[in-house]
Amino acid sequence: MSIFCIGVNYKTTRIEARERLAISEHSVPAHLGTICNLKGVNEAVVLSTCNRVEIYGGGEDPVVALDSLKAYLESYFQVRSGEVDFYRHQQEAAANHLFEVAGGLDSMVLGETEIFGQVKKAYMIAQKVGSTARQMNKLFQQSFTVGKLVRSNTSIQQGSTSVGSAAVDLAEKIFGSLEGCSVMIIGAGEMSRVTAQSLVSRGARSIIVSNRSYDKAAELAAELNGEAVRFDDWESKLDFVDIVISSTAAPHTVVQAFPIRRAMARRRGRSLFLIDIAVPRDIEDGVNVLDNVYLYNIDQLQQIASEGKARRERQLVICRDVIAAFLREKGIDALAPLPPDRVRHQDTEQNRTDSPGSGQPLTEP
Amino acid sequence: MDLIYLILATLTFGGGFALAVASLRREEGRRHGLGIPLAVVGLVFQLLFLRERGALHGRCPITSGAEVLVFVSWSIVVFYLILGRAFRLSLLGLFSMPIVFLLQVIAIALLLFSDPGARPPARLDVWLEMHASTSLLAYGAFGLAGIAGVMYLVQDRQLKSRQLGRLFYSMPPIRYLMSALERLLWIGSLLLTVGIVAAFWMDVRPNATHLFIYSFVWLVYIALIIVHALRRLVSRRFALYVIGAFVIALVSLSALSL
Q1: Which of A52, A149, B66, B74 has the smallest C-beta neighbourhood within 10 Å, fewest atoms?
Q2: Which residues of B touch A311 (CB under 8 A)?
Q3: Does B229 touch chain A (CB under 8 A)?
Q4: Which fold has domain A2-153?
Q5: Is some CB atom of chain B closer than 8 A to the CB atom of A269?
Q6: Phi/psi of residue A295, each to 5°?
């Protein structure tokens, strides 16, 4: 009995091809039913996200199984042979690949955590339709353990990877929890919207939008469930907000030091985080010297994001060591089937204890 | 035996600091995770030392400079374990440990070179014990406030300069640091108030020098609290003054130990 994996991801295949191969969540059970009847495939899990479509399986002969899976995918999605370059992994390489996926090491944003939930969900669906048995149960349980190990033993999640996440991380280093923080957007551009959404996703509330065109401000405010204010009135709101995002197209400075200094005197020591993502810059650089005022422009945020990415890249080596050590310790043998006389008992036990996310390393008893 | 306990406590705090620094320098996300356990182990050794000294004197063991320093170190660790956990300021331990280590190294030197030995009281005065112990506990709170002030300045500097070093991601948000600092000043001031008031109930007349020093330190901190509450001081300067106030308090300890 072997484990294997076939698939495509954002590294190997362009988005046009991935779109064609994407398997929607509601169609996964039907696919699993078919896949488990393919030659050489005894059990299977389908993982389909924006960045990857992968099928993990267990069976007698991995070569036969992988060939039949490839043929199935090409035929079902009407892909000409050779048009898509499927990667194929067997045994330890397949396990290693899943562990890297669950740990976020194979993700577009290195170390992101969303994939962990997607792997769990893929396994739950497969378990629900009965397409998993001993090997997939063990493999996926182990992937959850490894995913957690990677995150707790390294700083793969540490450091921002985009301008939006850099802004959020900085805000959290100033205010702690963003819940209850209010945000003002000056200039209803796309970058402002994206950055504000990042802050809202982490709990920020009371979005105030101000723009030269009031209609555009009202439109963005409605989208963000906030309040639009006239461009002439934004200064009066400075007393009440914690974070200001400015990205107007003005050729001159929009936010001068004087109104900020005046507002800070009324804010009774409350910090103010200013994010200037406009070029030319909107906010006078001198405001950064004011006490409790922190100003970052687009270059500085991008610099933080680049450093964050580089930092995560360096962590990749440590993460891979964690996975290698896990595989060395547990070994692929842990995924091998038990002798027939023990299978029945073990599978009964497995059904009782296997639950997605239990996080228990599964080893032979 | 008391000296051995003190040396063990000092080594524990020194080791904890070294481990924390090494962990931060390695750039591995995994912090050694021993900060709290090591602080607890160190605290146990401090307590064993204080128990031995208490048994020697038959009263609260704050009869000499060495004991005063250990008592203040002990209270810094206690406040760190209580407030550091509550405010999720785990890195406060990293900043506290070198101070505690340094104070205890001085205490060891004092014990080795000029241990006055047993100083049993003629008659146990509860108010005297309360006056001395609560006053020194207040010093522990002020010490930790000073440490939180250092952390505030470090984090503020990193944010202002936009140079986010390795320490940045491990440091708590500056709002939490300011909040911890304010609470520690309140706790310390309340304890010192109790200590000073207790002095007036003592059987003997309070030592005028001691009372003057405690009152001076109390006034410094009360002034800081009032000025901060009135927002007459910017946060950075407030943090700086809190550090300065603790240096004054530390210097006053040497006068108290005379």
Answers
A1: A149
A2: 27
A3: no
A4: Beta Polymerase; domain 2 (3.30.460)
A5: yes
A6: -115, 130
Axis crossing angle, helix A340-353 with helix A134-153, rounded to the nearest 10: 50
The answer to whether B201 faces chain A, any CB pair under 8 Å, is: no
Q: Which residue of chain B is at minimal alpha-carbon distance from A159?
A: B169
Give residue-wise pLDDT tens across range B1-33: 788 999 999 999 888 888 877 776 665 545 556
Domain boundaries, chain A: 2-153, 163-305
pLDDT at position A363 is 28
Lookup: tokens for B137: 């506990």
Q: Quote the number of domains for chain B.
A: 1
Mean pLDDT of B84-95: 69
Whether B166 and A314 have beta carbons less than 8 Å apart is answered as: no
Residue in this structure with the two tokens 């398997």, named with its chain if needed: A23
Rounded Cα–Cα distance for residues A9 and A28 (Å):
18
Q: Number of A:B CB contacts under 8 A?
A: 63
Domain interval for residue B212:
2-115+124-256
Least Cα distance to B252 among B83, B107, B68 occurs for B68
- For residue B42, which of B88, B89, B96 has the smallest C-alpha distance? B96
Is B175 in Cβ contact with A175 (below 8 Å)?
yes
A119: three-class secondary structure by DSSP:
helix
Q: Does the active-site annotation cover A50?
A: yes
Reported ipTM: 0.80
CA atoms within 13 A on the CB side of A160: 22
CB A119 within 8 A of CB A47: yes
Give pLDDT, residue B87.
Answer: 63
Q: Using a CB-CB distance cutoff of 8 angstroms, which residues of chain A are in contact with residue B171?
A: 173
| pLDDT digit string, tens, across residues B91-139 | 677 788 888 999 999 999 988 888 777 777 777 778 888 888 898 899 9
pLDDT at A268 over 90: no
CATH code 1.10.1470.10 for A163-305: no
pLDDT at B86: 64
A173 touches B: beta carbon within 8 Å: yes
First to last CA, chain B: 25
Measured between alpha carbons, how far is B170 from B177 in angstroms, rounded to an integer? Answer: 13
Strands A87-90 and A2-9, sheet pairing: antiparallel
Q: Under a CB-based contact definition with an 8 Å cutoff, are residues A267 and A237 in contact?
A: no
Q: Are B155 and B177 in contact (CB under 8 A)?
A: yes
